[in-house]
Write a structure and sequence with these properties.
With 228 residues, the protein is α+β, with helices and mostly antiparallel strands. It has one domain: Gcn5-related N-acetyltransferase (GNAT) (Aminopeptidase, 3-Layer(aba) Sandwich), CATH 3.40.630.30. The chain contains nine helices and seven strands; from the N terminus they run βααααββαααβαβαββ. Strands 1-2-3-4-5-7-6 form a seven-stranded mixed sheet, sandwiched between helices. The structure holds acetyl coenzyme *A.
Length: 228
């Protein structure tokens, strides 16, 4: 397996991989019924393409699969600034895709309520947005390696703080094994409508969203206060 940085020229290939993997398989996408395996989802594709533009993302390419250069997995990392999430929440109003809106409304609201920028007093965060491995390649340590390389990219680029919204127990375990800690969490059964019905009926074994973080180039970072 070869691990390479993703450039804007790889965008189509990466989206093709995500349509077969992340779009239908990620726990929240599945719960919302966001899209069928292999099918386009324009709102999520725009979100992914934006992260690729930041040139911090990494892919695993099957070197055996010569010629076709098959993508086995990707981690899409973006640069997050203090007002980005509030702006993204506002922009959701224009989004026609109701399923996308439901997922990102929950994520954005949770992130705004549990604000890493204020807590750590940083001006930008290395945001691990999408972690995806093709089902044919799972269980071989590819996601682990992608997260490890993301930490190296964050460190090389001078970031003090990394974050991710880990939506399932496997991604939570992977991030934990790379030193990420829980900043805040939201049990899916507590995210309900006015009738007490779960808005995102996420399937077991996934039970909660965890906003997780890792301090990078900075033992100097104020990490004394307890996570929320
Ligand atoms: N069942 C049991 N354990 C699992 C599973 C599973 N389905 N998947 C991963 N693990 C465990 C492994 O046992 C391993 O533990 P170890 O380090 O103690 O041996 C660890 O998690 C890492 O496993 P990897 O082989 O590196 O993970 P893999 O390459 O299979 O990818 C991933 C895991 C990314 C979660 C993959 O299943 C996937 O693409 N799922 C759909 C998309 C998704 O849910 N992405 C994460 C959302 S959160 C976010 O994107 C920020």
């Amino acid at each position: 397996m070869e691990f390479k940085m993703i450039g804007p020229e790889h965008c189509d290939q990466v989206l093709e991989h995500l349509r077969r993997s992340f779009f239908a398989d990620e726990p929240l996408n599945k719960a919302a019924g966001l899209c069928q395996n292999g099918v386009n989802c324009s709102a999520l594709e725009i979100h992914c393409a934006e992260a690729i533009q930041d040139r911090m993302s990494v892919m695993a390419v099957d070197a055996k699969d010569e010629g076709s250069c098959k993508i086995a997995g990707v981690v899409l990392n973006g640069i997050l600034k203090p007002d980005d999430t509030a702006r993204a929440l506002e922009k959701l109003e224009e989004t026609k895709d109701i399923h996308f809106r439901v997922i990102f409304e929950m994520l954005h609201k949770h992130n705004i309520e549990h604000n890493l920028f204020e807590h750590f007093d940083v001006k930008s965060i290395f945001d691990v947005r999408i972690l995806s491995v093709d089902s044919c390649y799972r269980g071989q340590g590819i996601a682990n390696e992608l997260v490890k390389r993301s930490v190296e990219v964050a460190r090389k680029n001078g970031f003090r703080l990394m974050k991710a919204d880990a939506t399932g127990i496997f991604s939570q375990k992977i991030f934990r094994s790379h030193g990420f800690k829980v900043f805040s969490e939201l049990p899916y059964c507590k995210y309900t409508d006015e009738n007490g019905k779960m808005i995102l009926p996420v399937e077991a074994p996934h039970i909660k969203l965890q906003q997780i973080y890792k301090t990078v180039c900075g033992d100097e970072l104020d990490d004394k206060a307890k996570p929320h």
